[in-house]
Write a structure and sequence with these properties.
The radius of gyration is 17 Å and the shape is globular. The N terminus is likely disordered. The protein has a single domain, classed as TIM Barrel, CATH 3.20.20. The protein has a nine-stranded parallel sheet. With 270 residues, the chain is α/β, with parallel strands linked by helices. The protein contains twelve helices and nine strands. Helix content is 46%, strand content 13%.
């Protein structure tokens, strides 16, 4: 049973497709730099034109995250951010933004510690649409997937350039919502250029699934999104938002985030 009145993720990808562009998936960590800043950043992302927003639940051993996000995760943890407070954060921003898809990003350990059933139930009730579990192997996903499906939550997996076709098929058989395609063999972090071989990798994934493909890890510029137009259905920009929040004076953060999203979404000239 899907508890949502409409599949927000599906609608977001369809809307972007009609406009001839990939959906822009932005990123926020509750509690970084402060809880108030992260709320304001979420609001600014919606105002700027983000199609989907990832909300990362901080974890003390964020293996897939580069230095930028690791530093922000540790600051959020020092600020008292917990899985429960992240779910409350989602409830709060959902009350103001009823139509914006929200996808939780975290690791398996916090979900197991919370309790898979409780996590699924409370996340869905707060207004989440899906969950990216970075380190959940598809071979061990049955219980989690079942708990999420019963609450109408999509379960999103990562596919890497090193994945074999057999592995890609195993992963995409478990995915719902969209497939998160990691652009590089490595960790998160803004990069100047798209990696070589990215299109070939995406073509391999495309052969294995009809779900939307979203590319992340290293995306940070309008030209990245333009280069991927017609190739994928979504582009994830993460570390660049954390960098922006970290380097911007507090009173200017919301404006800076909104204007950056406007550039990425094509509403504003770079």
């Amino acid at each position: 049973m899907n508890i949502h009145s409409a599949p927000r993720l599906e609608q977001a990808f369809a809307h972007a497709r009609r406009e001839g562009r990939p959906a822009l998936i932005s990123f926020v960590i509750p509690g970084f730099p402060t809880l108030e800043d992260s709320r304001d950043a979420f609001d600014a992302m919606v105002e700027g034109g983000a199609d989907v927003i990832e909300v990362e639940i901080p974890f003390s051993d964020p293996l897939a995250d580069g230095a930028t996000i690791q530093g922000a995760v540790f600051q959020a943890l020092r600020n008292g951010t917990t899985p429960a407070s992240c779910i409350e954060f989602i409830r709060d921003v959902r009350s103001r933004h009823p139509d914006t898809p929200i996808v939780i990003m975290t690791y398996l350990n916090p979900v197991l510690a919370y309790g898979v059933e409780a996590f699924a139930s409370e996340s869905a009730a707060a207004g989440a649409d899906g969950v990216i579990l970075v380190d959940l192997p598809p071979e061990e996903a049955a219980q989690t997937k079942s708990a999420f499906e019963r609450r109408g939550l999509d379960l999103v997996f990562l596919v890497a350039p090193t994945s074999t076709e057999e592995r890609i098929r195993a992963i995409t058989s478990q995915v719902s919502g969209f497939v998160y395609c990691v652009s590089v063999t490595g960790i998160t972090g803004a990069r100047a250029k798209l990696p070589e071989g990215l299109n070939e990798f995406l073509a391999r994934v495309r052969r294995c699934t009809s779900l939307p493909l979203a590319v992340g890890f290293g995306m940070s510029r309008r030209e990245h999104i333009e280069a991927l137009t017609g190739v994928v259905e979504g582009v994830v920009v993460g570390s660049a938002f954390i960098d922006l929040l970290a380097k911007t004076e507090r009173q200017e953060r919301a404006r800076a985030v909104r204007e950056y999203v406007e550039v990425l979404s094509g509403r504003r000239s770079p």
